[in-house]
Design a protein that fits this description.
The protein is an all-alpha fold. The chain has a single domain (5-101), classed as Helicase, Ruva Protein, domain 3, CATH 1.10.8.50. It contains six helices and no strands.
Length: 103
């Protein structure tokens, strides 16, 4: 079945949107790695679409002094799934994460 130019334009638009979101997500992770955010400040941000799509595990791993092992074990202690997205966190979970990982 041949694709129409309308289908191609829709697909290209969707791909551009996803690529833009991915770029914003990578930018946030890079800024966390560079030390531009503290754990306290990142968990108090609300309404950032790119940040809301990230897994909490990936965010925690980027902080200096946390790493992969401590991030996973901390989430396990708090009974938060490794696949939990930032937007899914409840306020009490955010506070618990700040207490667990604040340096």
């Amino acid at each position: 079945m041949a694709t129409t130019s309308e289908d191609t334009a829709t697909r290209d638009s969707a791909i551009a949107g996803v690529a833009s979101m991915r770029q914003q997500m990578n930018q946030i992770l890079s800024e966390i790695s560079a030390g531009k955010f503290s754990i306290d400040s990142i968990f108090k941000i609300d309404g950032n679409a790119a940040l809301n799509q990230l897994y909490v595990l990936k965010i925690l791993e980027r902080f200096a002094g946390v790493g992969k092992v401590r991030a996973r074990s901390g989430l396990d202690v708090l009974k938060i799934s490794h696949k939990c997205r930032f937007s899914s966190l409840e306020p009490r979970q955010r506070e618990a994460l700040i207490k667990e990982f604040a340096q």
